[in-house]
């Protein structure tokens, strides 16, 4: 994990790679908790080589809701890898609308869904 602080600690970017599964979820949770305690905006970059499972999706969802409750923001940066997208789809997290808990209309997965749709559209346009 690499951590980059910007703007006097108000913005933190976590860069995650490698094993992002249940084996490391406690460590990843601690990183997110520390970052949210120190920042008003948290960005998480997930590397293309990351191995993900459903636990990291659950962690990101809970962290996003926590950030919203605290008046902070959390976002995923960069292009999601194929493996991350596959887990997202298989776990049912890929959605064009937020879940019933998304009362503020800020669902993290809805944002990811829109980004993936834009990337796919751009790929199709580039092929034609």
Main traits of this protein?
128 residues; alpha/beta; Transcription Regulator spoIIAA; two-stranded parallel sheet; 20% strand; globular
General description of the model:
- This protein is α/β, with parallel strands linked by helices and 128 residues long.
- The protein has one domain: Transcription Regulator spoIIAA, CATH 3.30.750.24.
- It is built from 4 helices and 6 strands, in the order βββαββαβαα.
- The protein has helices at residues 25-38, 54-69, 82-90, 108-127; strands at 2-6, 11-16, 19-20, 41-46, 51-52, 73-77.
- A hairpin with a 4-residue loop joins strand 1 and strand 2 (11-16).
- The longest helix is centred in the C-terminal third of the chain and has 20 residues, at 108-127.
Count of DSSP E strands? 6
How many helices in DSSP terms?
4
Whole-Å distance between the termini?
39 Å
Mean pLDDT: 82
The CATH class is: Alpha Beta
For this structure, the CATH topology is Transcription Regulator spoIIAA
The CATH fourth-level homologous superfamily: STAS domain
Low-confidence spans: none
Count of domain modules: 1
Helical fraction: 40-55%
CA-atom Rg in angstroms: 15 Å
Query: What percentage of amino acids are in beta strands?
Result: 15-25%
**Outline, from the CA principal axes?**
globular
Question: What's the SSE pattern?
Answer: EEEHEEHEHH
Side-by-side strand order of the widest sheet: 1-2-4-6
Major sheet details: 4 strands, mixed
| Proper CATH architecture | 2-Layer Sandwich
């Amino acid at each position: 994990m690499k951590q980059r602080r910007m703007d006097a600690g108000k913005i933190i970017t976590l860069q995650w790679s490698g094993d992002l599964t249940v084996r490391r979820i406690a460590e990843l949770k601690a990183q997110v908790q520390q970052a949210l305690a120190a920042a008003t905006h948290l960005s998480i970059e997930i590397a293309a080589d990351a191995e993900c499972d459903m636990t990291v999706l659950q962690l990101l969802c809970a962290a996003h809701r926590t950030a919203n409750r605290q008046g902070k923001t959390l976002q995923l940066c960069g292009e999601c890898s194929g493996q991350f997208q596959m887990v997202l789809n298989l776990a049912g997290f890929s959605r064009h609308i937020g879940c019933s808990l998304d009362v503020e209309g800020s669902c993290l997965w809805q944002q990811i869904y829109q980004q993936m749709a834009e990337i796919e559209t751009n790929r199709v346009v580039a092929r034609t």
